[in-house]
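Customer ticket, subject: "Can you confirm the structure for Pyruvate kinase?"

Message body: Hello, I'm evaluating your service for our small team and ran a test protein. I'd like someone to confirm that this is what the system normally returns, since I don't have a reference to compare against.
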Amino acid sequence: MQGGNHMLLEEPVRLASVLAPAKPKVFPSLTKIVGTLGPNSHSVEVIEECLTAGMSVARFDFSWKDATYHQETLDNLRKAAQNVKKLCPIMLDTVGPEIQVHNSTGGAIELIGGNHVTITPDLSKAPSADILPIKFGDLAKVVKKGDTLFIGQYLFTGSETTSLWLEVTETSGAEVICYVKNTATLSGPIFTLHVSQVHISMPTLSEYDKQVISTWGLQNSVDIISLSHTRSSEDVRELRAFLKSHDLQDTQIYAKVENAEGLEHFDEILQEADGIIISRGDLGIDLPPERVFMSQKTGIHKCNMAGKPVIITRVVDSMIDNLRPTRAEATDVANAVLDGTDGILLGAETLRGQYPVDAVRTVGRICAEAETVYNQSLHFKKVVRHVGEPMVHEESVASSAVRSAMKVKAAAIVVFTFSGRAARLIAKYRAPMPVLAVVFPREGSDPYDRVIIFEKIGDSSVVKIIECDDSER
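Agent reply: Thanks for trying us out. I re-ran your input and got the following:
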């Protein structure tokens, strides 16, 4: 049974099997879980539990807190990883062109629906129900009457009473007068302002981002940089050049697509980036609700065909305050896996949520269950058809390795590599078993990569070795 890009088992699944106890798994879910570390996931003990529960990548978001705080958290992560004997890559999330609303009073500001409020770039003015200061001087130049503005707390879900919707009624000099569409209470020092489908004349890679990357990022040899608000392929090229100039050329770039501009230039961004993060939070503001699903499904499909990792965000927002996700959220996570997503990013759920460990564990279990009914055979055929013929040598070897592993029901695929290219190509075909990459140093290495397939039959093993050229092209 299948529909659209959904990957379900071709043979129907007996509904009674849903009631059967879950079978023990040797490996956790193949879908990776990115956990954002913060106040409620800062300690060594909690991070240990998150790692044990299935967290694969630790995300450090510099929109919140400074380098000193994040360094303390990273030091705790390293202790925790050593204690549980698990590797955990580091993801640095940039700030980018983010407009912040500053509440210098720190007190709660209640705005009543039906009233008007003025947005001003004058930070010396005290925030109130009548005026909100922002750290951006050109808002009045880029918005027009009728435009929609959204103000929410950091990592907003969109459903809190702190989420404020405004409609621009007029501009006066550098100030913007707005109609308040709903009643909301803003409590906290900083909020984020989002303008729907309007280009903001701020650089994607800010000076603050550069300073953080060249200091904290370099010092800690970050594995991945999540480039927030990526709007074009030029944004990715600029960051890559900056990384190379600071001896961080091995750091991967995951372009965070979270606005209409990013969607418009998705194909060119995908070509330049190492991976994609589909940020459904901000996309849900830029797009009508009925079109969000299509951006997710189409984006995931394009990434799958290109053989590049894709991660989605905002899946179990209710677990910020609740021990269990809603039924809709649980289904959403499973459907994302069936769509072909490679990873799930948890933001507020682990940063300020009350149940960070449970959020990781629950999402991991849902992913693992969805993977049991994922139609890998259909995905394999789609990728082969997309690649076309004649295949280049590396594609041919990678696809053959996965096909052989599937036929012998292999326990794992082990790739000996020095550039990682062979492992990434094999992962592109989404083998239903783990792919383990063993990295050789470049100096004195054999110019070929070996792909080893293990078949477990009782106490015996069958090993097949295939060599493929893994040179970067």
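A couple of notes from the result: The chain has 15 helices and 21 strands. Residues 67-84 form the longest helix (18 residues). Feel free to reply with more questions.
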